[in-house]
Amino acid sequence: MSLLAAHLVSRLLSLSCxxxxxxxxxxxxxxxxxxxxxxxxxxxxxxxxxxxxRRRPTVTVCDSFNGxxxxxxxxxxxxxxxxxxxxxxxxxxxxxYQLYDVCSESANVYxxxxxxxxxxxxxxxxxANPAHYSPAALAVIGPDTTSHAATTAALLSPFLxxxxxxxxxxxxxxxxxTIPSDEHQVEVLVLLLQRFGWVWxxxxxxxxxxxxxxxxxxxxxxxxxxxxxxFKDIIPFSAYPGSERMQAMMLxxxxxxxxxxxxxxxxxxxxxxxxxxxLTNLTAKVWIASEDWAISxxxxxxxxxxxxxxxxxxxxxxxxxxxxxxxxxxxxRAAKGAYGPCSEGSWCSSNQLCRECWGFTAQQMPKxxxxxxxxxxxxxxxxxxxxxxxxxxxxxxxxACSRDKVYPWQIRKVNFLLxxxxxxxxxxxxxLSSYDIIAWDxxxxxxxxxxIGSSTGPPVQLDINKTKIRWxxxxxxxxxxxxxxxxxxxxxxxxxxxxxxxxxCEAGPCGKEEWAPEGSxxxxxxxxxxxxWHEPISWVLLAANTLLLVLVTGTAGLFAWHLETPVVxxxxxxxxxFMLGSLAGGSCGLYGFFGEPTLPTCLLRQGLFALCFAIFxxxxxxxxxxxxxxxxxxxxxxxxxxxxxxxxxxxxFVVTSSVAQLLICLTWLAVWTPxxxxxxxxxxxxxxLDCTExxxxxxxxxxxxxxxxxxxxxxxxxxxxxxxxxxNEAKCVTFSLLLNFVAWIGFFTTASVYQGKYLPAVHxxxxxxxxxxxxxxxxxxxxxxxxxxxxxxxxxxxxxxxxDYTRRCGST
Length: 812
Description:
By secondary structure, the protein is of the alpha/beta class. Helix content is 44%, strand content 14%. The longest helix is centred in the last third of the chain and has 35 residues, at 599-633. The protein starts with a helix and ends with a helix.
């Protein structure tokens, strides 16, 4: 600071001190001061300000008691005494204090100048280098209002205010606080509005730095998060319930048509506001409270406030000062319930003097409410913050402090642990703490509040339990316009983007891979779908197909072990392995239906099934035909029978039939090649991945050929319905072939009405039914005889059956 600037500041401060510090003989109350090695100053409103015209430059006389400020006052005394009694913190150093009743702006100015004065004097020295100046106090705790704190913050180090203005280090380099900044509070309030979808709100603030800066911050942040402020107003200092100004505010608030009202106000003006709300009968709203009045009984005690609606808000996290209540009670007992007569003092007024003869008893003490206890803890924490900074500066870690001379600017922020509370500060001097989210709760006319959540961060996040809220009102939504239905677009009406009309959209042109709902301008990407491996229906079909493969393999082993037995020989002998192999091949082809279609899977899955099932049907047909021919026509046409046997008729038929189906399949794969396809026509919002075989002539030819073989097998089996019991397979084969017909009729019926992603699953189910029916109808009865009825698997039994058939034929 230059010498000229120093002289100018000296002149200004001298003028202030002429009136503020001219009282030398004023009587002081003993509770306001304590001697010590290092002094702290505390600025708290022990009385309430009574506005009036001041005709002299004196400290305003405040004549009504302030219970909340009294608890802050006692919290600082308690904190200092606790530290002085501690052997761990500042072990050989004592702290003293000078406390001031800052019930008015003039009292606050007086206290500020008194703290700046040289210890033991009533004057302020202004030096060229202020770093070497030693005022009466090293640090100041308080005041608890932003307007008063701003007066002292430029020169002192107050610890108790929330305004974000005080975090600007350019103007307030030595300012620290023990409650979160209003900047953090505003972020929490906006997140609270977002959590409940409240985008159409009213905003009311109080006159002064706290309310106006809070409203300004909300005006900046809320629109960035899509929240519209329909109505905004400030409660003036001069307002009172029923005044013309407040009546106009209530009228505009009612016309705003907002369900949610954010009230960022000091306690004093918030009471005026809510008395006006009750007087106007403005009900069924949701009121969002800033931390200064959220849990204050000064507001909840307003007559009739229980009927205004739901009150939610943010509050500083609740902490207790263990022993404070007992300390206050002990103080009352020590004073024996009353103070002596108050002296008049000199012509000017001191704010370290009892103004009213308040006599407390243990039963009549000011109630230590949750709000006052929370605020008292912040004072208590501020005292400890100074003590820990001093502890570090004096190098007390060795067990003894150095007792060096300390300048206020040397004390720095220190992170420390206080009763399980980690007290930490960021670079701006703001504490890294959070808020509770509270809701008012009324049981009749009895008021309380409940904590419904909390904020965490940075970055700021909310954790809210909505089930703890008791809503008072039918409609808790706060929007200007409801969301538009699908196919409609918003057309903003008026100034606010939250107010709009919904009009039908014109469907915009979309690309091949996009789609748009009817009446929508926006194109959305189509969802690609196909039968994946991990879907439940896939698991069921895969499990069934794998089980069939296991049974086919097991049957092949069983028949190989009993190859020379009459049952296996009557079933076809070695031809059975050819039939079982064809069933296994057809079953393996079904795995190609799962997963994203590719060219190999499209080529193999249906073609392999068609060929293998044709081989099985060819074997089944020739087996049934051969049994009928032997038993019924061999004696009638012996020449044809001998030629059939001599020229290996059964094998020739199976080969010829199978080759015919092979040629059909090769033609199908060559001419009408099944390829992966992206189907866009079936569903507007989907792209269905599939193969093209179901739409090809080749697929229909292959299926028709298998149908002819099925009819032939059915006919031959039916003709053999009266054969010997051991050779009579008509019932089982007929059942399996009927199952085959029903399965494919069901598939084609489904395919005619449904073309979605699960059509391949229907295809697999039909093919699996055909394979299972063929296996179950032909092989399972023979497996049963081999495993469970070995007495029927003998040459004698088969010979007896043939003889019985011969006798029946002879008798007819």
